[in-house]
UniProtKB/TrEMBL annotation:
<keyword id="KW-0645">Protease</keyword>
<dbReference type="Pfam" id="PF13180">
    <property type="entry name" value="PDZ_2"/>
</dbReference>
<keyword id="KW-1133">Transmembrane helix</keyword>
<dbReference type="InterPro" id="IPR009003">
    <property type="entry name" value="Peptidase_S1_PA"/>
</dbReference>
<dbReference type="InterPro" id="IPR001478">
    <property type="entry name" value="PDZ"/>
</dbReference>
<protein>
    <submittedName>
        <fullName>Trypsin-like peptidase domain-containing protein</fullName>
    </submittedName>
</protein>
<keyword id="KW-0472">Membrane</keyword>
<dbReference type="InterPro" id="IPR001940">
    <property type="entry name" value="Peptidase_S1C"/>
</dbReference>
<dbReference type="Pfam" id="PF13365">
    <property type="entry name" value="Trypsin_2"/>
</dbReference>
<feature type="compositionally biased region" description="Polar residues">
    <location>
        <begin position="410"/>
        <end position="428"/>
    </location>
</feature>
<dbReference type="GO" id="GO:0004252">
    <property type="term" value="F:serine-type endopeptidase activity"/>
</dbReference>
<keyword id="KW-0812">Transmembrane</keyword>
<feature type="domain" description="PDZ">
    <location>
        <begin position="319"/>
        <end position="397"/>
    </location>
</feature>
<feature type="transmembrane region" description="Helical">
    <location>
        <begin position="52"/>
        <end position="74"/>
    </location>
</feature>
<dbReference type="InterPro" id="IPR036034">
    <property type="entry name" value="PDZ_sf"/>
</dbReference>
<feature type="region of interest" description="Disordered">
    <location>
        <begin position="408"/>
        <end position="431"/>
    </location>
</feature>
<dbReference type="GO" id="GO:0006508">
    <property type="term" value="P:proteolysis"/>
</dbReference>
Length: 450
């Protein structure tokens, strides 16, 4: 039954339904105790063994808790928890000027330079084979090089873009104009309509040593804007191949991800020593980490200035020939396994003036071995139009050294591409015209003029 006036939820299990008639105890005043107050002692049996075991267990727990920074105190009446709070005063990061003389902490480096870094978002529209307009978007990073709004980034960040927007650390967004760029060196210059901007301070990338500390600031994944990562210089003058184009790079283990491309790489003095350009996330079937790359600023600064003035690199060295890496058929004719084949030479061009002929194999430039077209392209990056160098070619079973003065890229050539490219076979499997004529007689073909 549920009719007990003292306990509405008391139920009787008696078959006859009667209730227990004992009087309910008289309620006394409620006694409140704080959790830490001792409870009334009760008489207990002596359990010395259990007390000793409990004491040993408590000591073990105290030791572990102390290692974790938390102290547990045991009193007679209960447990007490005390969390240790640090009283250290946070260090205030002062914004310092980059003068190339003072070593900066990572926090100071970031504070001094974050306003010079930018986030870049570009979009492009193209027509697919069905005649449909397809829009694409990409993100990257960059850095301000002048107070009136000139910005440096990678060429691949804005390549083919119909719209480019630049966002500053302050949150302001500007439409950007692409002044120009160069695909071979993966550099581009943008311009926004702004004044009074904070520009970076350029450093000397040639002074970097393996083990130097460097920092990258950028826009990883296109969303984590103005993030900074740090690491060391793993290698200098690292030759790598990116999509068939050779680059001389600074290798670093700083975390670099898609979206970081075009951002600045700072040394410990807060100076820009590189342009973040690529990251190898995999090699063959193996996953790798800690491989980031940046273009040395010394290698491209003259070209950046050239782009700012002329819209493209005007002093790129021009060979004036169609060349390509040796293949098996060519190797049989020359008994050479490596080198760069001369397919054709332009009348009046630098190659013809130097004495290069169809069928020559370029094996060295200024003593530097040339085993492939990539080697030749990388070697050319060390020269400008008008520079003279010694070119070693294999002809008629012997090595010949020629003096070649690089020419200037013709106006009708695409300034975004290095004109020295490998010659291609036509659809019937034939070689370019001049090469086929050299070996087999006249036959029409195709090739790329350099």
């Amino acid at each position: 039954m549920y009719n007990d006036e003292h306990n509405l939820y008391h139920y009787t299990y008696r078959k006859d339904g009667t209730e227990h008639t004992a009087e309910a105890p008289t309620a006394g005043p409620a006694v409140y105790r704080e959790p830490w107050e001792a409870k009334p002692e009760r008489k207990k049996k002596s359990r010395a063994g259990l007390k000793i075991a409990a004491l040993a267990l408590s000591c073990a727990l105290l030791g572990g808790a102390a290692g974790a920074g938390v102290m547990w105190g045991v009193s007679r009446g209960g447990d007490e928890v005390n969390v240790q709070m640090s009283t250290r005063t946070p260090v205030k990061v002062n914004k310092v000027s980059v003068d190339g003389q003072k070593l900066l902490s990572d926090a100071e480096n970031y504070a001094a330079n974050v306003n010079s870094a930018v986030s870049i978002n570009s979009s492009a529209a193209s027509t697919n084979i069905f005649g449909q307009v397809v829009e694409s978007a990409s993100s990257g990073s960059g850095f301000i090089i002048s107070q009136d709004g000139y910005i440096v980034t990678n060429h691949h960040v804005i390549n083919g873009a119909t719209s480019v927007k630049v966002t500053l650390y302050s949150g302001e967004t500007y439409d950007a104009t692409v002044i120009g760029g160069d695909e071979d060196y993966d550099i581009a210059v943008l311009k926004i309509n702004a004044t009074g901007l904070q520009s970076v301070v350029l450093g000397d990338s040639d002074s970097l040593n393996v083990g130097d500390h460097v920092l990258a600031v950028g826009n990883p994944l296109g969303e984590l804007t103005f993030s900074m990562s740090g690491g060391m210089v793993s290698s200098v003058n690292r030759a790598i191949n990116v999509d068939g184009t050779p680059f001389n790079m600074i290798q670093t283990d700083a975390s670099i991800n898609p979206g970081n491309s075009g951002g600045p790489l700072f040394n410990e003095y807060g100076e820009v020593v590189g342009i973040v350009s690529a990251k190898y996330s995999s090699y063959s079937s193996e996953s790798v980490e800690g491989l980031g790359f940046a273009i040395p600023i010394n290698d491209v600064w003259a070209m950046i200035e050239d782009i700012m003035t002329n819209g493209y690199v005007t002093n790129k060295p021009y060979l004036g020939a169609t060349v390509g890496t040796m293949n098996a058929a060519m190797a049989q004719q020359t008994n050479l396994t490596e080198g760069v084949y001369v397919y054709s030479v332009e009348p009046g061009g630098a190659a013809e003036k130097a004495g290069l002929q169809v069928g020559d194999v370029i094996t060295a430039i200024d003593g530097r071995t040339i085993a492939s077209l990539e080697d030749l392209t990388a070697a050319k990056k060390g020269y400008a139009a008008g520079d003279t160098t010694a070119v070693t070619v294999f002809r008629g079973g012997e090595d010949i050294e020629l003096q070649l003065t690089f020419g200037t890229l013709p106006d009708n050539q695409d300034n975004q591409h290095d004109a020295t490219t490998s010659a291609t076979q036509d659809q019937t499997g034939g070689y370019p015209g001049d090469l086929f004529d050299y070996f087999f007689g006249s036959r029409p073909g195709s090739g790329t003029a350099a």
